[in-house]
Amino acid sequence: MKAVQYRTIGSRPEVVDIPVPSPGPGQVLLKMTAAGVCHSDEFVMSLPTFEGLPLTLGHEAAGTVESTGEGVYSVQPGEAVVVYGPRGCGRCHTCSLGRENYCPYARELGIHPPGLGAPGAMSEYFLVENERLLVPLGDLDPIANVALTDAGLTPYHAIKSLMPSLIPGSTAVVIGTGGLGHLAIQILRALTPATVIALDVNEEKLSFAAHTGAHHALLSNADASRIIRDLTEGKGAEVILDFVGATPTLKIAAESVAQEGDISIVGIGGAALPTGFGFVPYGTRVHTPYWGTRSELFEVLNLARSGQLKVEVETFSLDEAPLAYERLRAGTLRGRAVIVPGATT
After folding, report:
1. Would the pTM count as exceeding 0.85?
2. Residue 237's closest CA among 222, 227, 247?
3. Per-residue confidence (pLDDT) for residue 345, from 0 to 100
4. Of 313, 261, 253, which is closest to residue 282 (Cα–Cα)?
5. Shortest CA distance to 273 belongs to which of 244, 296, 310, 246?
6. Sheet with 195-200, edge to edge strand ranges
7. Does this chain's domain 2-150+292-340 share its CATH topology with 153-287?
8. Residue 142: what pLDDT?
9. Which CATH architecture group holds 2-150+292-340?
10. How many alpha carbons fall within 13 Å on the CB side of residue 15?
11. Which DSSP string corresponds to 284-331?
12. What superfamily in CATH does domain 153-287 come from?
C-alpha cells in the first residue's frame, strides 16, 4: 500500500510502498478515507534527532473498518469512524477518565501518538491498536471533518478549560487564524458570549478570520496590544489563545492580557513566556494545554453535526502529500490540508 513517510533526518516526506498490516487481538484495521496534515508533523521533521524512522506520518485519521482482530466487539466492518489521537496506557485513573492526552505513564512506557512516534495514518490502510480509540463518525463527511480530531479538539479543550473567564462582556484574543485558529474562533462564538479579536500577519488571513466569525481582525504587529487595550477600554483581554507560540506573539499576549486573565499557549513555536512580577499583569494564569480528551472529541463532532463548526479544507491525493507539506511550510494553505487516499493525482 502507499504511505507518506518521513524517512531520514532533514529530509522531506516521501510516498512509498509498505505492506498492509494485519490486525492482531484487540486491533482494528481501517481503510483510510482521510488524513490531516498538521504543523506538528513539521515540528517532528525539524528535530535534529528522532528515533523510529522511517515514520508514516498522520495523526488526524478517518476511515471505515476493514477488519478486526480477535476480541473486538464494539465496531463492525464498514463502520465509519475517526481515531482519537492521544495515546496513554489505557489503565490508569487519568486514562479511565478519557484523558489519555495527560496519561502520566505514556512517556516512560514509550507510548506515542500515531504519526508522532508510532506509525501514522497517512496511508491506504491504518492499524489502530485498540477499539477504545475509535469514535463513530456517523453521517459526517470524513474529508470535511477529519481535522476535528486535532485541529478542532485541541482548541476546544483549551477553550473549555477557560469557560469561567469567558463571561458576558469578556474578550478573547486568538493569535494565529490558520488550521487551529479558525476553528477556535468558531468554537468561541458557539460556546461563549465573548468578543473575539483575531490576530494574523496579512490582510488575506484577517479577512478569513472575519469570515469565520471574529468581531475584530488585527495585524499581529507592534501596534496590536495597544489596539486590544483600546478595544477593551484599557483593561486588556480576559483570555489570550496563542496558536503560534513564537516570541513576538507571546510578547503581544503578555502586553494584552487583563489582570487575573488567562494566557493559553497552544502553538508549538518553541518560545518561552517570562512570568512573575513585572513580566505579566497581576494574577495572570498561564496554560499549556495538550490535545483533548476522548469525551471532548464526541462533543466537537456534535458541534460539527449541529452546523456550528466547519473546517476550511484543501484536499490532496496521497501522491500530492509532499506538495501539501510544502504549502503548509510556506504558509499558503487556507485552513487545513487533508490527504484523501482514494483520490487520484
Report:
1. yes
2. 227
3. 59
4. 261
5. 246
6. 216-219, 195-200, 171-175, 237-242, 257-265, 285-287
7. no
8. 98
9. Alpha-Beta Complex (3.90)
10. 17
11. -EEE---S--HHHHHHHHHHHHTTS----EEEEESTTHHHHHHHHHHT
12. NAD(P)-binding Rossmann-like Domain (3.40.50.720)
> Is the pLDDT reported for residue 152 higher than 80?
yes
Quick one: cell of 131?
477499539
Q: Which residues pair with 3 in a beta bridge?
A: 16, 123
Q: Cα(164)–Cα(123) distance, rounded to whole angstroms? A: 41
Q: 10 Å Cβ neighbour count for 260? A: 12
C-alpha grid cell, residue 224: 496590536
- β-bridge pairing 336-340 and 313-317: parallel
Q: What is the pLDDT of residues 35-52, one digit of tens each?
A: 999 999 999 999 999 989
Name the amino acid, one letter, at 170: S
Torsion over CA of 294, 299, 303 and 309, rounded to 10 degrees? Answer: -30
Q: What is the pLDDT of residues 97-145, one digit of tens each?
A: 999 999 999 999 999 999 999 999 999 999 999 999 999 999 999 999 9
DSSP per residue, 71-131: T--S--TT-EEEE------SSSHHHHTT-GGG-TTHHHHT---BTTTB--S-BSEEEES-G
